[in-house]
Amino acid sequence: MTEMSLYHQLAESVGAPGSARIVKIFQALADEDEAKVLVASSPPASVDEISEKTGLPGQYVQEVVDTLFKKGLIFKSSRKDPQFYYRVRHMVQFHDSTAVARDVTPELIAMWQDYMAHEWEAYRDALMKVMPRPGLRVIPVNVSIQPQTQILAFDDVKNLIDEARSIAVTPCACRSVEKKCDSPMEVCIQFDRSADYAVERGTGRKLTRDEAMETLKIAEENGLVHSGSNQRGPGRVICNCCDCCCMFWGQMGYVSPSRFRAVIDADTCTGCEFCLERCRFDALSLDDGQGVVRVSPDDCMGCGLCLTVCPEQSIDLNVVREEDFVPV
Length: 328
Prior knowledge:
Radius of gyration: 22 Å
Mean pLDDT: 90
Structural class: alpha+beta
Number of strands: 13
Low-confidence stretches: 144-154
Oligomer: single chain
C-alpha cells in the first residue's frame, strides 16, 4: 500500500473521501509508519495484532500507539488484557481530539480553519440527515426553576456533576480552532471515561465538584450556553457554546432545545433590554407599544441565560416539553 493511499484511506474512514484538506491534516499529524498503525487499528486491535498486520516490531508499535494517543488519533478500547486500540472514527471526534492536543501547532489550526470554512457545512448537513435524533441538548443554567416545576435529574447541571465519578475540564475545541471571540476557553467539562481520557492525554485537568460548578458559573456569566448529551443518563460532556465558534450552532438537527422556555412577567418587566443583549438565539424582542420584552416560542431554546441578567427577576423557565422529549 502506497503512502498516499494510506492517507486517502484514513480520510475516507472519517467520512471525507476525496478531501484533499483532510488528507493534508492526516499527513501533518502522522508519518507513514503512524498511518500504517492507524489503518491497522480498525477494527480495534492489540499491539501484537497491529504488529502482525503492519510488519512493524511490537515494541515500536507500542511507542507509535502511545504517540498517536497523545495526538488524539488513537483511543483505548474498554477491552483490556491485552489492551485494544482503535483509530479516530468520525470527523467530529477527529476535529475535537486533535485541536486541543498539547503540542498542536499553529499550522494545524490553520488547516482546520481552512477545512471548516470550505468543507464542514456539507459534511455537517450530510451527518444530520442520517442521525436518528439530535446528538446534543441545551441544558438550563443552574438557577431556580418555578416552584411548581419538577426539574428532572437530566435537566439539572448540578445533578449531572454530583453523579459523575470523575470530572475534568478541557479547552473548547471549537474556539481553539475558530478563535473568533474572547470567551473563556477552558470550560468544556468532561465526565467519567471522557474525563479520564482527557487527563491521561494531558489535554484536561481534574476538577472537584465545586470547581466544576464554578466553571459553569463562569460560563454563564460570559453568556455561554450549556449543552450536553441528548439522553436521560449523565452523558459524557457539558459544552459551553458561543454562537460564533460552535461547529453545530443553530443546527436544530444536531442540537435540541431544553424542555423549558423563558416566560416573562409583563407586570414587572421594565423593558431594560439586558436580556435581549444576553439571548444568543434572537428569541427576545421589545414590544415598543407595551414597553416589555416578548418571547418567541419558536426561537427560544430554553437555556435560561436571560434569567441571569434580569434585574427585576421578571423571567422564569416553564416546562413546555414532556419528560419523553429527552431520549432514554
